[in-house]
Amino acid sequence: MNLIVSADENWGIGRNNQLLVRIPDDLRLFRELTEGKVVVMGRKTRESLPNGILANRVNLVLTHDRHYEAGNAVVVHSMDELHRRLEPYPTDEVYVIGGGSVYSQLLDECSTAYVTKIEFAYAADAYAPNLDHLPEWELIAESEEQTYFDLIYYFRKYKAKGRNHGYNR
Ligand SMILES: NC(=O)c1ccc[n+]([C@@H]2O[C@H](COP(=O)([O-])OP(=O)(O)OC[C@H]3O[C@@H](n4cnc5c(N)ncnc54)[C@H](OP(=O)(O)O)[C@@H]3O)[C@@H](O)[C@H]2O)c1
């Protein structure tokens, strides 16, 4: 599985169920990487999406609510059910897209993380795991400095050591 996130200096990712900032080139990279693939998200992240669904992708939404309806998205109610629904798909085609609670639960099953790292500390209330502090994760690639108005950010790629896409649970 892959993880994809934009995180600020403190690995903050959101506030009041919204992104901290919308950077057009970041949103474009997100679309390029995930289109045609499977995206896994929590119910709160789904509700933060402008249309409640990401087009041209298989959308899987986690919630404990048995009555939750999410249009064309597939609703799953537990990690076990998620794994059953993911069985038909190659793990390298699965992208964990957040939010914080879902990143934490699926981090150990991910082998690659695409991180847009923003050099600013926002007031956040949702966080991704800090991959720089986890010894099993290593930074393997970083873009040149990117700018959006006065923001500086980098596209980073991390790999989990000794883990490949075949790893599952
Ligand atoms: N910067 C980024 O790249 C990025 C990406 C995604 C999201 N975000 C931000 O992150 C924030 C949302 O993150 P969050 O942690 O608050 O919420 P979240 O992870 O999006 O959703 C949490 C919800 O998912 C459901 N859930 C989680 N684990 C489950 C499990 N094992 N079984 C069944 N249901 C499960 C529960 O829904 P129920 O309560 O319905 O049971 C839970 O309340 C927002 O601010 C959003 O904008 C940022």
UniProtKB/TrEMBL annotation:
GO terms for biological process: dihydrofolate metabolic process; folic acid metabolic process; one-carbon metabolic process; tetrahydrofolate biosynthetic process. The keyword Oxidoreductase applies. InterPro entries: DHFR (IPR012259), DHFR-like_dom_sf (IPR024072), DHFR_dom (IPR001796). This is dihydrofolate reductase. It is an enzyme of class 1 (oxidoreductase). GO terms for molecular function: dihydrofolate reductase activity; NADP binding. Residues 1-169 form the DHFR domain. It comes from the Bacteria. It holds the Pfam family DHFR_1. It comes from Eubacterium plexicaudatum ASF492. Pathway: Cofactor biosynthesis; tetrahydrofolate biosynthesis; 5,6,7,8-tetrahydrofolate from 7,8-dihydrofolate: step 1/1. Its EC number is 1.5.1.3. Gene3D superfamilies: Dihydrofolate Reductase, subunit A. Belongs to the dihydrofolate reductase family. Keywords: NADP, One-carbon metabolism, Oxidoreductase. PROSITE patterns: DHFR_2.
